[in-house]
Each structure stands twice: as C-alpha cells, then as structure tokens.
Amino acid sequence: MRIRIFDSKEECFEAAASVWVNYAIAHPTSIIGCCTGTTTGPIHQLVVEKYKKSPFDTSNLRTVNVDQFVTPNPCPKKLTMYHSMRPLYEGLGLDEEHGMLPSCTPEDPDAECEKYERKIQMLGGIGLQELGIGSDAHIGFCLPGTPFGKGMHVTRVSDKIVEDIRTAPQHGVDPSYGPFYGMTMGLKTVMHARFTFPITVGASKAQATYNAILGPVTEDVPASILQMHPNCLWYMDREAAEGIIGRVNPDGTIIK
Ligand code: GLP
Fold this sequence. Notes:
alpha/beta; 7 helices; Rossmann fold; 256 residues
C-alpha cells in the first residue's frame, strides 16, 4: 500500500480526479469501479471538468459501481444510485452499456448480483477501483463483520443509509417502506481489481483510516483488507491522516 497525504481536501480531490483521468486515458477499454458519496461525488465532477477541458476517448470505457439499492415492492420511487452517477455518465457520454449499474428493481436480487459479477469478469475485470470509505471503515454496503470471502451479494443497508433514503432529495422514501436492501460488491470483488484507490478526507474518517492502515487486518474493519492488496494507493487529506502522519515513508509506504 502507498499513501499520499494532501494539505487540503480540495487538493486531494483534484489529485484523485487526475488519477482517474490518467487511468482512463492509459486504459481506454478498461472498467473503472466507482462509488457514490460525498468523497467520490466531487471527484467525479472534477473528472468531468478535466474531460471537458481536454476530451479523451471514452467510447470503450466502462464503469461499474460498488453498490446499488434494491427498490422494495411496493415503493413510490425507484431507489437507485443512478441519480448520483448521472453527472459522470452524462459528462463522459457513457450510455447504459458503459455506465453499468445493476438493476435497482431486480426480480431476483441474488441472481442480479451474480449476473453483474459475471459481466464484470467477462469484460476483463475491474482495472481501477476507486473507494469511498465509511467512518466505520465500511466499503460499499459491506459493514463491519462482513466476511472477506464474499463476492457481490445482497445485504440490509445500515441505519445511516435508511436515514439518507428518507432525507435525500433524490429519494425521500418513508422508512415504513423498508426494510431496505442493497446489492454490494463483496470485499473479494474489490480485491480482484487490479488497482484499488481508497480516498478519505476529513476528521470523521481519521479513525477508520488509522484502523484500516495501521490496525490488524480484520473483518471488523472492512477496509483493512486493502493492506493485502498488491496495488493499493490511498489518498487522504491531513485531517483524515491524523493518526498516519509520521508513519509514512517518503515513497508512500507505511512504517508499521
Ligand atoms: C456509503 C456508500 C459507499 C460510500 C461510503 C462513503 O455507504 N454506500 O459506496 O463509499 O458510504 O461515503 P462518503 O464518501 O459520503 O463518506
């Protein structure tokens, strides 16, 4: 694992967007794994800005997502990550075949997970996997305790996500329509990506960042599995790096 610490969250996002764009330019037929959230949203915006300034070939580029909702039946609205991903899809001109999301209204969510994972494999696997990390070090919908060996699977979403489902303008769905489930890449899926690229900013991510990087590799800290990934680059700002500062060599490797 290599670490880079930036003075501010803005610098971190800017540099992360450059990693994304440079990967897309160098690997124009690859699959880039994406996340939704307050970390990756602004990064996607910067990716689109960079693309607009200096367009590159996106006609064979694909994206996949770490997670997607399963819309309960009945539910007044579709619960989908599409809303969060749309700026990137539209900005880069990715149609449904290229901006690939699992269906948010699958007849059989387990089968949809299998289909999505198979499709990723058939298309050559994930090249770069960007990762937002939760403040409890979760990845996608894989909360602490999720077995490392799981591939894409269906799981109950956290209380925090239920709150987002209630309050986020794009959702606004009453919790009484729950319980809510999501489909998520498993940590095994994430570990199969050729490059993993977690990004953490802000003091609320400091503990998770510390635990994942310097703590033991344990299912209680889902992102700690990344210590075992052969090509993991972790970008963070100084606030998220609070427990890491002083433990990073000049080449970005960690001093254990
Ligand atoms: C949510 C999403 C993840 C995301 C994570 C971090 O749980 N399901 O895909 O990576 O939270 O989000 P944020 O960057 O907003 O902290």
